[in-house]
Design a protein that fits this description.
This protein is an alpha+beta fold and about 550 residues long. It contains 13 helices and 24 strands. It folds into three domains: about 140 residues, Sandwich (Jelly Rolls), CATH 2.60.120; about 220 residues, 3-Layer(aba) Sandwich (Rossmann fold); about 140 residues, Galactose-binding domain-like (Jelly Rolls). The longest helix is centred in the last third of the chain and has 20 residues. The N and C termini lie far apart (about 80 Å). It holds the Pfam family Lipase_GDSL_2.
């Protein structure tokens, strides 16, 4: 018997926060914190009312604005379903204290309405946290659309329709060509081209943040800009198996960390000798304490390698049009390096309604990361550079960067080395105190074509105050500079430490500043001359917050 339909739902205004966003695998995490949800409302839902955007930043505001949530999922197999969870973060217990909205969503494209009046809210509720999609199928692939229906008293903006992007059009190709900032000196890239076409082994490496890791790409291993541009480079260079790929992106980390992990993550401690390194930190280096010194030091470190790799500087962009290319491009000018700006390619046309090729919603997966199409555009910008060099630019006969002349920004960390339990502990004297354990809950990333995660800095020193009360880690060292790499965390047991150098307090080491499992480099010593220093890291633990991890150190002798 067919039931009579119920009374129709009141026609409420709504806006999108996701439109056919692609997901892949058994588990997909779509972060909504750190202003991601308001940004999605602005970019995807055309919301420009500042009050409405502000309300989306907190649970209290969310409840005031939103009446219900509409979720639809489409997959090739319409008989499948996806488990949906909207997790709200807590004030005290970030991951365990907030409310959750659960639903099982059929994959047939029909919208399921989730009503906020049915949610069991908690006293610890703080901010929208993340949306988690889970499936029994490790290769589950589909598209999620989400709308927020508004409470009475709020007016929804008009929702815009989008045209498909024609990547073969002249207009698209012109947009890509706008990314070429500078060809630079072509000597080293010319050597790469010659080696590859002769059938000799060539390695192309990428180092950067979460965009280089592949965030926003689905699946992350083959749809990321790094792999797509590598495939494009291969085709230009003969498409042989002699061309190899290294991907070393770590989310949320600046060149300050990149310079410390380059030897391990890119060269595998000297076993790999890349012929080309693409450096992508233009949206991550806001957190670089040195305002570009670390970035230039990393670039110089690569250029000074005795096998003379080529370097390309890649400047990606956030959804608010932010990047640091104006700060960093003097490094490219100083060393005559090829430079590619995704910002110069896409941002101007975002605001030209008559000639727009791609919208922000089509380009950005969230406020920080590109969609699959966005990753394609980034890859095409890089491929355009190499193609232009091969077709139009003369290959320079010499390249002699003057490393003794004044740097563009700074070179304090040219000779920095990584110190951890595995490497270089003979270069300083360590008394670990109670830091005798090894942390295995670490920031982990997808390397190369892997979907499995590889942990960063596994050879660490962990303090656990529930097992040991010796809360002081000491280092005696002669150095110009010393950087500590600490582990950030959002777990309730993360303790704060204080760092002292030669008896003087230097800084707090607080894992809750970033509040997620994350590698965080912080400078303790940075001087022009080498001197002896005594460093103490002292944990301030209690019965609950009693764990702290030192992932390693960066040392300049």
């Amino acid at each position: 018997m067919v039931k009579a339909p119920t009374d129709p739902e009141q026609n409420r205004g709504f806006f999108f926060t996701m439109k056919e966003k692609e997901f892949y695998g058994k588990r997909t995490e779509l972060y909504q914190d750190a202003c991601r949800l308001p940004n999605s409302a602005e970019v995807t839902g055309n919301v420009h009312d500042k009050e409405m955007l502000k309300l989306l930043e907190t649970v209290d505001g969310f409840k005031k604005l939103v009446h219900s949530i509409g979720v639809s999922i489409e997959m090739e197999d319409k008989n499948q379903s996806i488990d949906f969870r909207f997790q709200f973060y807590g004030k005290k217990d970030q991951y365990g204290g907030g409310a959750n909205i659960y639903a099982t969503i059929p994959a047939d494209g029909s919208e399921q309405r989730l009503y906020l009046k049915d949610v069991e809210w908690t006293e610890d509720d703080n901010v929208p946290g993340q949306i988690i999609l889970t499936s029994e199928d490790e290769k589950a692939r589909g598209f999620i659309t989400m709308r927020l229906y508004l409470n009475d008293g709020f007016e929804a903006p008009e929702q815009e329709e989008e045209s498909p992007v024609d990547v073969d059009s002249k207009e698209y190709k012109d947009m890509i060509s706008n990314s070429l900032m500078q060809i630079g000196n072509t000597k080293r890239i010319g050597k790469l081209i010659e080696k590859a076409k002769a059938g000799n082994d060539v390695t192309i490496a990428y180092i950067g943040g979460s965009i280089t890791q592949g965030a926003g790409a689905t699946p992350i291993n083959t749809e990321c800009y790094a792999y797509k541009s590598f495939v494009g480079f291969k085709k230009l260079l003969g498409d042989g198996d002699n061309i190899h790929y290294v991907k070393a992106g770590v989310g949320g980390t600046p060149s300050e960390l990149g310079m410390l992990r380059f030897d391990r993550d890119v060269t595998n401690d000297g076993k790999i000798k890349p012929d080309l390194v693409i450096v992508e930190f233009a949206v991550n280096d806001e957190g670089d304490e040195t305002q570009g010194d670390c970035y230039e030091s990393l670039v110089r470190k690569i250029l000074k390698l005795d096998y003379e790799p080529a370097v390309i500087l890649l400047f990606s962009v956030f959804a608010d049009d932010f990047n640091l290319q104006d700060r960093l491009k003097p490094v490219g000018i100083r060393y005559e390096l090829p430079m590619v700006s995704v910002k110069d390619s896409v941002v101007p046309q975002f605001y030209d309604r008559a000639k727009r090729i791609i919208t922000k919603n089509q380009f950005f997966y969230d406020m920080f990361h590109p969609t699959n199409l966005g990753h394609t555009i980034m890859a095409d910008c890089l491929i355009n550079l190499l193609k232009t060099i091969m077709e139009k630019a003369p290959i320079d006969k010499a390249y002699n960067p003057d490393f003794e002349a004044k740097p563009a920004i700074g070179n304090s960390f040219d000779n920095v080395i990584l110190v951890d339990k595995k490497d270089n502990t003979d270069m300083l004297t360590i008394n670990p105190g109670g830091f005798v354990y090894t942390d295995t809950v670490l920031q982990s990333v997808e390397r190369e074509l892997d979907l499995e995660l590889t942990p960063e800095f596994p050879y660490n020193w962990m303090y656990d105050g529930s097992k040991n009360t010796d809360n002081v880690f000491t280092v005696d060292v002669e150095c110009k500079a010393l950087v500590v790499i600490m582990k950030d965390t959002g777990e309730v047991d993360g303790a704060v430490a204080k760092a002292y150098v030669d008896g003087e307090f230097v800084r707090d080491l607080d894992p809750y500043v970033n509040r997620w499992c994350h590698c965080n480099p912080l400078i303790l010593v940075n001087q022009k001359t080498t001197a002896a220093h005594h460093v103490e890291i002292r944990v301030e633990s209690d019965d609950i917050r009693n764990k702290f991890t030192i992932l390693g150190f960066g040392l300049v002798k």
